[in-house]
Amino acid sequence: MMSRIRREQEAKTALITSIARSQQALASILEQIAEVASCSDVTARKLAENIRVLSSYQGVMCETLTGITLNRVQQGRPVKPFIQEHCRIFRP
Fold first, then answer.
1. Where are the extended beta strands (E) located within 36-90?
2. Which residue ranges make up each domain of the chain?
3. How far apart, in whole angstroms, are the C-alpha atoms of residue 67 and residue 61?
4. What is the Cα–Cα distance from 25 to 17, expressed in whole angstroms?
5. Which pLDDT value is given to residue 87?
6. How far apart are CA 8 and CA 45, in angstroms?
7. Contacts of 71 by beta carbon, 8 Å cutoff, 6+ apart
């Protein structure tokens, strides 16, 4: 009888293998999008959005599987750093 830890490791290995295959498929799709983009902007945008969603889903699966949180890219304008008044260094 297989131990629980062994079954968990095999399940994780199967998920990682599946994600790797999916990444290869996405790379192939991206190559095809490059060809389609010259013919139809709407189709290319739709495909690109679908790939973005799939990639996001795969990222969440990887984070869940490994326990490692990947940094998210945040877009926008950075704000001026906030420093409390009593923490400032005053220079003459």
1. none
2. 4-66
3. 10
4. 12
5. 67
6. 38
7. none
Write the pLDDT tens digit of every residue in 43-83: 778 877 887 888 888 888 778 877 777 666 778 887 777 66
Structure tokens at 8: 């968990």
Length of the chain: 92
Quick: pLDDT tens for 13-34. Answer: 888 888 888 888 888 877 877 7
DSSP letter at 76 equals S
pTM for the model stands at: 0.50
Query: What span, in angstroms and rounded, lies between the C-alpha atoms of 5 and 68?
Result: 19
Burial string for 8-28 (b: 16+ CB within 10 Å, else e) reads: eeeeeeeeeeebeeeeeeeee
Q: How far is CA 85 from CA 82, 88, 90, in A?
A: 9, 6, 10
